[in-house]
Amino acid sequence: MQAPAPLPQPLSVDALLHALQAEGYFADRRLATAVFLALRLQRPLLLEGEPGVGKTALAQALARVLARSLIRLQCYDGLEQREALYEWNYAAQLLHMRAAEGRSGADTAQLEREVYQERYLIRRPLLQALQAPAPGALLLIDEVDRADEPFEAFLLEYLGEYQVSIPELGTIRAQATPVTILTSNRTRDLHDAVKRRCLYLWLDYPERERELAIVRAQVPGASAALAAQVADFVARLRSQPFADAFQRVPGIAESVEWAKALVALDTLVVDPEVVRDTAGVLFKQREDVAALTQDMAAALLQPVEAV
């Protein structure tokens, strides 16, 4: 029985911060510490937070930092175990059985052993992650809150022991310990049993300086003044009393997309009219677009000292 291979470790939290930044992901120290501990302790990391705060992007950047393949399990209502773990190639098994019918002396037990071989196994994300060769994979279990409670219970064996049980084959353990990140938008509370098996971090919207760094890195065509105006505007949009006017305030992805749109429009300085014309980049709900009036845009664009 092969023990999980050790993880290649960043030397420090600072080293991890710099490595993520080199991949275009600007983590704060609290997030980098959580990731560092998840790697060092070989524990899954559960990230909760509003949509658009960078949970999925972290997994993508970390996979590049660690030079691991990224395997993504996108959760949704009604997700079944066979879609997450494995299923049998029934068509190939049927062909095997038909070919065996003419064989003399073939008994039922022997035939069953033949059709339940690994070559007839279709590996889904969990099994792919466990069987990935060294250095292992990074498994992203995305939006786990969208799946139902029975699926959470099914995950416990994997999260706690990095293994799964397949009735026809037995217990399959990790060949190399997969780095595992779960994300949740907290549309519902996850069971305590899932949380106990993970390290946990609530990921909030970034501070203004961090968001500015992200915008400047992702939109190099934006001038320093325009990038600063985007970061200031979005930060104030998420603050009170403005945030109460919207169903969902823009995330980091929307900030970056808005900056790209402003560059495409050759915008030098953001004004209320430009804000209204591009509100559909920042918001994805009709009510939120309507709530961003020209008067509100003017108030949001005022210098902080003037408010």
TrEMBL record:
Residues 41-207 form the AAA+ ATPase domain. Signal peptide: none annotated. It holds the Pfam family AAA_5. Gene3D superfamilies: P-loop containing nucleotide triphosphate hydrolases. GO terms for molecular function: ATP binding; ATP hydrolysis activity. SUPFAM superfamilies: P-loop containing nucleoside triphosphate hydrolases. PANTHER family: MAGNESIUM-CHELATASE SUBUNIT CHLD, MOXR FAMILY PROTEIN. This is Dynein-related subfamily AAA family protein. The lineage of its organism: Bacteria, Pseudomonadati, Pseudomonadota, Betaproteobacteria, Burkholderiales.
